[in-house]
Specification:
CATH class of one domain: Mainly Alpha
Oligomer: single chain
Number of strands: 0
Structural class: mainly alpha
Strand content: under 5%
Number of helices: 16
Largest sheet: none
CATH superfamily of one domain: Tetratricopeptide repeat domain
Helix content: 55-70%
Low-confidence stretches: 321-325
């Protein structure tokens, strides 16, 4: 299939861009499956080229016919959704299985879901479990997390097994699953299915926060949004923040705690930081719960107290609001 040279004029039309784009089209026409998949994505999303599901499907199909697992999985998804082609779950499952057997983790996970929920196939929890295991072994964190939940709660006629649950939570966490990181923090903090290890618990709670991009790279692993955007020399802004904190505004209390931790515009004082975090946490200010846990776990401004740290960590995550005000 000849590829139209229809560069989107709204895109960067520098000579370097045009050269790169033409080289990319050359790879597509030469039949490189990765390039064909990338062109399929472009048509599916309408980036650089006009959005066109039929053309997206066509380019995925060309790559899929060459045995390219990612393309085979994309074909399956389009059949499943009826996107660019008539909806056909049986054909979708056929392509998912081909893709999974060629190493595509997502395809294996989707087959597991179909069997777990009986979606156009006879519900079979044992088959679902086997596909989830295959997906997890291929690197799918969601499948590992699902398996952990099945063993933790004894779902689908599976014997409750906390050790097996912990094993799969750890696999999921190491693959980047945020909820699994939090669960590991709980397990290590409370000694569930594993020897109690407060340092490991704190590590996994912090990893969960970083995974959510709530903890920027900083010395204390604190959560904050914009408190350090106040210039340390802006006395008026600092005075206003202090007054808001003293007036009971939870966000200001958390922000002031951060400023005391860093000595930003106020003298560095861990005790003051701890007290402001505690006041904010009492009002269930979510970042403050996390920051208070950090204080307890490290002994900043308070005697080190791991049980209190774990308590605040466990209150923080279930209450997490991605956009606190």
């Amino acid at each position: 299939m000849k590829v139209e040279n229809n560069i989107n004029t709204s895109s960067d039309n520098s000579e370097d861009y045009k050269t790169a784009y033409l080289n990319f089209l050359k790879k597509v026409e030469e039949g490189e499956p990765q390039a064909q998949v990338e062109l399929g994505y472009m048509y599916q999303l309408g980036t650089v080229v006009p959005q066109n599901d039929q053309l997206a499907f066509s380019w995925y199909q060309k790559a899929a016919e060459q045995g390219f697992a990612e393309a085979q999985s994309m074909i399956a998804g389009m059949y499943e959704r009826g996107q660019g082609i008539g909806r056909n779950i049986d054909t979708a499952l056929k392509w998912y299985e081909i893709a999974a057997n060629n190493g595509d983790e997502y395809a294996a996970h989707r087959i597991g879901e179909h069997y777990e929920y009986g979606n156009k196939v006879e519900q079979d929890f044992e088959i679902a479990k086997q596909w989830y295991k295959k997906a997890a072994q291929l690197g799918n964190s969601n499948s590992a997390y699902v398996l952990a939940g099945i063993y933790q709660h004894g779902m689908h006629n599976v014997t409750l097994d906390e050790l097996e649950a912990f094993k799969w939570y750890k696999i999921a966490a190491e693959l980047g699953h945020t909820n699994a990181m939090y669960q590991l923090g709980i397990s290590y903090g409370l000694g569930q299915a594993v020897s109690q290890n407060f340092k490991e618990a704190v590590k996994w709670f912090i990893n969960a926060s970083k995974s959510l991009k709530l903890t920027p790279k900083n010395e204390y692993n604190l959560q904050f949004i914009d408190s350090l955007e106040i210039s340390k020399d802006d006395n008026d802004a600092i005075s206003l923040l202090i007054n808001e904190a003293k007036g009971g505004q939870a966000k200001a209390q958390n922000d002031l705690g951060v400023m005391y931790m860093y000595g930003h515009g106020v003298p560095q004082n861990y005790n003051e930081a701890f007290n402001w975090f505690k006041l904010a946490a009492k009002q269930q200010r979510i970042p403050a719960l996390f920051n208070l846990a950090i204080m307890y776990s490290n002994g900043y401004g308070v005697s080190q107290n791991y049980p209190e740290a774990i308590k605040n960590f466990t209150e923080w995550y279930p209450s997490f609001d991605p956009d606190p005000v």
